[in-house]
Design a protein that fits this description.
Chain lengths: 86, 226
Amino acid sequence: MTKERNVGGLRCGEVLAGLSDYLDGEMSQDLRANVDVHLAGCTLCERFGGEMGALVASVRKHKEALPQSIKDRLRLRLLAAREPAN
Amino acid sequence: MARHDSPGDWAQRILPALPHLWSVDLSCESQNVLDDLQLLKAAESDVAAFDLVMERFEAPVFRFVRSLVRTQEDAEDVLQQTFLAIWDALQKNAGPSQKGQKSAKSWVFTIARHAAYRKGRRRVGEPGEYAALPQEGLAALGAAAGWGTEDDPETLFAQLESQKEMQRSLALLPDEYQEVLMLRDVEELSASETADVLGLSVSAVKSKLHRARLKLSAIVRREGES
């Protein structure tokens, strides 16, 4: 960080430390309000917070479907395991 | 600078391509926890219910174990071992309900994780694998992730659009970061569920997740530049 600022009663480093809690909605209302004030007055933190938010959103979309061939082989394996019990 | 009314306004301005970012809830794709437990309970005596268990968990388990083992073939084997273990446990009435567990997801992913570590010839919590990460300062991690720079965020966003690039970047994360990121952000387990799977405290999960995200951001940036 080129120069940490103190905006909204929070330093940039404190905003960085709490960024995931902020993104996940796991921050107290009071602290969240202070972070909002900081973000409104600090372009660097606002920009970085947006990037991190985009990163998290992108990771959450990363849900590959399971190929049918793997599903089929799983069922065959389980079918074989079930047979002695039936 | 204009004062924003809410985080949503902030997202709208800085992330035009992702207008609903701030409405993304970690539980948005989570099924009802009670339903999952009931499903596993039903699968103890009902084969059709077990088929539903497979449909419910096979893709999430495969994605998770694929991040822990070396090859696709190993991941498929671990997937099968996981469901064989689930089947055996349910047949013995040793499912999550009998174990007093509150989350079916925690139970399933814990079984999957142990199966993956056996396949990878690693043991859960084994020293040297899990305690090897240096505790980088948060400021240094943040700086590598782009904190405090004036780069154009569009560059990073373009990089994130490609699933292939995302997969490659995820694979470059240290193991313990991959695990927490897969469980929390991809499979959307709660912090408490993730803590149960990893054998960590909730605060340790949160700390590790934050570092994992910063590290991933740094990797995405680095890969984008190379």
